Fold this sequence. Notes:
This is PCI-domain-containing protein. By secondary structure, the protein is mainly alpha-helical. Helix content is about 75%, strand content about 5%.
Amino acid sequence: MSESTTNTSATGDLLAIAREAVSQQDLASAETAYQKVLQVPAEANERTIADQETSLNELGLLYRDHNKAQELSQLIQTSRTVMGGFAKSKTAKIMRSLIDLFATLPDTLDLQIATTQDCVEWAIAEKRNFLKINLQTRLINFYFKKQAYFDAIAIIDGLLRELKRLDDKSVLVEVQLLEARTYHALRNIPKSRAALTGARTSANTIYTPPLMQAGLDHMSGILQAEEKDYKTAFSYFYEAFEGYASQEDARAITILKYMLLCKVMLNLSDDVISILNGKLASKYVGRDIDALKAIAAAHKNRSLKEFELALETYRTELSQDTFIRSHFSALYDSLLEQNLVKVIEPFSCVEMAHIAELIGLDTRQVEGKLSQMILDKVFYGVLDQGNGWLYVYDEPQRDVAYDAALDTVKQMSNVVDALYEKAASL
């Protein structure tokens, strides 16, 4: 029997032993058996290579399932020696799948970054350009999650130049979308918009997978909302929601929350229930959706107390999302205005202390907001700060005769100017 046949038989037997140990929850024996498979010289034997590929994947899954992040990182690094005789495409596939196993392990982001960076350096040394590009794209994602935005931008700048040179449009769209998200996180809206425009332009020339198209619509909705164009933002979010929902992606519920927020910001709180009763949205029930329903109800009732109660009740669901949190300031301000208008509607003269008591805020805060509302002509009135009173007036009707008089004075002024110029020329 040849040595290669012996190796093939040995790896097959070791795999069987490892799987039996896994079924018996004997982690140590399973790990030992898998490691022995990886130590067998492959010598271009297809069966041995296949067994070693299986061992790498199954051992990686074993480390993930038992929350052994350090061992998984070590496996990724040592696997490069094992895969020396593998085809480049197979090596890239295995390495990517092993890195993906980190995703479900808690508190491993720094380790993911270090491991991926090490793999990038190895890919550069081995001149595996396409693997390097794929790993750098993943590294950008990790930096974004860590909020290390400038580190992400540093990689993006170089990667975009290389992708444009290679004319790899599919990866180019992904990286440009990441660039748009990163600049948005840095609050550089013009650069974020420019990056998104570039991504959409590149996407128009190729087939765009549903999730990628949903990602583009997602980002477009966010940027439209930044400009307070909630109607257009809702349209983009709806397209993104359909894309994510069709692929059963977990981001669908996040986009649904954004859709509901847009309706609230447009003073269309009644539409919230209509959306939730729709075929696609009806299956997304839970505290996340209940939180937006509570906000919509508070906004409809123009009740600041209900709004603050909803924020307190659903603190986790509402405060963790940066998009929702960033727009709540404007929503709170709008709701405060509506609440004040509702309170002062029956009065022509009212004490500011009484208004503050009715809505449960400090008198100084109420006074400042009422002053701003008068200047913005939300309503017509005068603040008597000495006595602490607010006088509310009806909206003044513009006198047509007053406009005609102003126009007459303007024309007379023009005539006098013309006569003065003629007199000066004599």
